[in-house]
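INPUT
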Amino acid sequence: MDRKMYRKVDMKVVMLGQMSCGKTSLVERFIYKRFNSQYQATIGAAFGACCVTVQGCEVCVGLWDTAGSERYNAMSPLYYRGAKAAVICYDITDDESVERAKFWANEIQLHEEECRVYLCGTKLDLVLQDPKARQVDLHDMLDYAETINGRLFETSSKTGENVQELFNTIVQDYVGDPKTDLSAPQDSSFRLHTQRIREKCC
Amino acid sequence: MADSGTAAEGKAAPALAGGEAVGDELKDDTPGVSGEVMLVNTDSFEECNHDLDTQFSGGEDGPDSPLRKVQREQENELVGGMGNVSLAEEEGKQGSEGSGEAVAAAAADDSEEECVDEEYLHSPEWIQKEKHVFILSESGKPIYTRYGKEDRLVTLFGLMQALVSFVADSEDVIRCIVAGDHKFVFLVKSPMILVGVSHSVASIPQLIMQLTYVHNQIVSVLTGSALTRMFEKRRNYDFRHLLGGTERLLDNLLNMLDSHPSFLLGGVQCLPLATATRDTITQTIIQYCSKIKNLVFGLIICQNQLISLVRMKKFLLHPADLHLLFNLVNATESLKTSENWMPICLPKFDPNGYLYGHVSYLADDCEACLLLLSVDREQFFTLSEAKQKIVDRLRRHHCLEGINTAIRTSAYTVGAVGAPELRHFLYKSKTTAQFTCPEYTAPYNTPEQQRQLFGLYQQLHHRVHSVSRPLKMVYMVMDTHTLLGWVTKEFELYATLEPLVTKHNAIVYINKLLRWIKNEENKLFILSSPTF
Ligand SMILES: Nc1nc2c(ncn2[C@@H]2O[C@H](COP(=O)(O)OP(=O)(O)OP(=O)(O)O)[C@@H](O)[C@H]2O)c(=O)[nH]1
Ligand SMILES: [Mg+2]
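OUTPUT
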């Protein structure tokens, strides 16, 4: 337990999206494989890390789970600066959340050229349970994703559907990118401790 | 009921002999006295009450301390950013917490929309709540209600706004209305109005102090300058967009205000800990943090108790700010599993700027939470690394075990004092702004009995701090208990005893209690004031 191990975060990923659209739940599912139906708004942002192995490469993903509340807008560059991927979430049972997702997509495109955009429609289970709950059309969003050169996933943090796929794709795209040099992580200040994470995931 | 006002004069045991002279005599063995100050020590309730809403500069040497200057630069940036929030976009898309449940609930709401206010106002359950708290904007827009949904109380909020502006028209400020056993208290803090409606025993100054805490909580989330700025931009602005997610903090704070003596006393409770353990913890924080520039406070807390606090030289922490940190940690379950980086405004430290807090629990197997508060918002990874080193060293020195053991076993009961007719007490050391109290034991076993006891303390507190007739000592013999309140320069003591205790015995017990606390003072209080 006392084993100390610092390792570099190879890849910074930021979660963005309207309040209560499901960012924290997505991270919880991905890192800890669990789901909590009780909502607790994130304050500021939470940092977590998880290692993913793709094509024989182990990549340590450092995740910034930001708060959706607009009072934190001014702080958001802190979290997306230098990110390699942005997971921009919207709630497929709430059409208003799309507006905010588009706002973030713009913001990222404007300020972070290197950052790939992954749109993520959350709460898929609610729609599978009751198709009438869907307020956001999948094809509309696919079209939109194309215009911004991003990818699109629909996930459920409750059942876990598509969550691993989403993050695997993110890491694969990163590893597969010729611009990526895995031997030299970009930012040496991103040292962190992964012992706890190792025990819990992967 | 025999109320003997300033009783127990002269004749009694030396320690309890009367007023100031006693305080002087006692000085050396008054429990918990320390010349080293790490918390702002608010002298009395009135001052505290007044002080709560005047800004405390945080610095030992006046408002223009170096830190404020450092901060100012960074703040301009952030507050500027806040101004960019697009107001138009937010209009009319409120309450979009679109989880499945919420959607369902919203649908249900729609059908009931017609019977807005009346519905609550006709609900005995709603009306009979012991204490309501409402927050509205100066223009009458609902912001928060402790019970029910604020947007269903539009008429009531309108009425409150009308009352406030009616009185304001005659260049006056409405403070309170008393109707039967109900007290309506108002706190006008532009651009907000806070209203409390209570039929508890809490006094009007106590209720106003509670509203001040609520206001501080909001400032802590938004900063005072952002609040004003938002409002200057648009008088009709719906604050709830910016406060989203804060209801939880307000709810939790209000519950604590009704049950936790720390707010009443304006003091902080420390986790009782062996001096050696506490020293190691403090030294560890200093060791890994003293070189970090811009770090202002480093503290470890658990269960609303302070374990250790290290501060930048020149800067003190105000208990009212510390209470907000307690509340934040207490109300946010999710902090347990992640490393967090959040802007936190400490209203007494600086109401117009944020500190940035690295907030995380020490370990999966230790319930204590570490907060590192800095003025530099780019410092997350530096602090994250420091945290890890702190935890590693604490583990090597068995401090995590020490903390865990203390969490499980350090609470004491009044039995430990060995004063058989003493039932419960609150003791506040005024110089350190810290207090101690035993766990509840018989006859205070049920939540209802504990609530009643808290009410007694509120009444006692009100008596000794009464503005018109402040008392040094109150001794009240009643059917079910005897109450004693005693205030000196160094401490405040509130105690309940058996109803049939003789005055002589009461004095013996109280002196015994003071000696006992004196003996334990190094565990119960933090008497040093470490700095980076
Ligand atoms: N049924 C279902 N509910 C979900 C799902 N994802 C999130 N939720 C619920 O939606 C609510 C909000 O989820 P969070 O993950 O906390 O939302 P967030 O985006 O982190 O919110 P902020 O921190 O305020 O920005 C919670 O009650 C979750 O349980 C999902 O996939 N299915
Ligand atoms: Mg969240």
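end of record. Residues 101-257 of chain B form a domain with the Beta-Lactamase fold (CATH 3.30.450.70).
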